[in-house]
Amino acid sequence: MAILDRFPTLEDLLQAQPEDLGAELVLYLQILERNGSLYEDGLPDRILELYGARTQRPPGLVLIVSEALAWARRSLLVVRDMSQSSHGFIALSREGRAFTRGTLDRMRLREILPDILLHPAIRQTCLDIFNAGHYEAAVFEAFKQLEIAIRDAARLGAHEHGRPMVTAAFQAKDPGGALCGTGQSGAVYSLCRHWSHVLPRLPETPPPHPRAAGGDRWVF
Fold first, then answer.
1. Distance (Å, rounded) from C-alpha 122 to C-alpha 12?
2. d(CA 48, CA 9)
3. Engineered SS bond to 92: which of 96, 127, 187, 204, CB 3.0-4.6 Å?
């Protein structure tokens, strides 16, 4: 049984983090759903039965189960069962029915790097690499996309790459360079110099490169 494998004793369960118990609860609900509707108010008593407990609910049990369910709802693993006329019934979502313990690791990664914060070009090429656990490869790919975008925005040749390319793109010695623009602030000038030093520290990427997505001047 999923919950007993993860939490051998009731005391272990009462000390669980909401997401840890929530994950096991979703796996348990996958079993219960095969046998009929799921009524959330009855879950604490069902859990007690797993441990062979026939006494009153121990303090904190209802709260920890409520927290676990709240996590499952927030993660869109559990939803309200709208097929029932009465309130209190829940159902597993499509993702909840396909949920495994491995899914939890991927969900944690998504929280570390929300895709909404990423530029579309970075999201398209790097996010799956990151979510697969290849963090260094994802960072390298992200910087490669940035290098591509800088090259394209500065209209440099496909053979250009590394520090010479970035320096030429920003004309880092001149605040009025190609991408910095005339009369830009000192902060922008510093940013130009920053990228001319950061990118070359990565392994050089072989040209030619495809065009980066998006047409903004400040593509990064």
1. 41
2. 11
3. 96
Q: DSSP 3-state assignment of 90?
A: strand
Describe the crossing of helices 120-131 and 101-112 by its angle, rounded to 10 degrees. 140
Q: Which pLDDT score is estimated for 70?
A: 96
Range with the lowest mean pLDDT among 10-14, 112-116, 179-183? 179-183
Q: Which residues contact 177 (CB under 8 A, 6 or more apart)?
A: 169, 170, 171, 192
Identity of the residue numbered 29: L
Residue 60 confidence (pLDDT):
92
The span from the CA of 155 to the CA of 89, in Å, is 59
Domain 2-109 in CATH 1.10.10? The answer is yes
Domain with CATH 1.10.10 in the chain: 2-109
Is the separation of the CB atoms in 217 and 207 below 8 Å? no
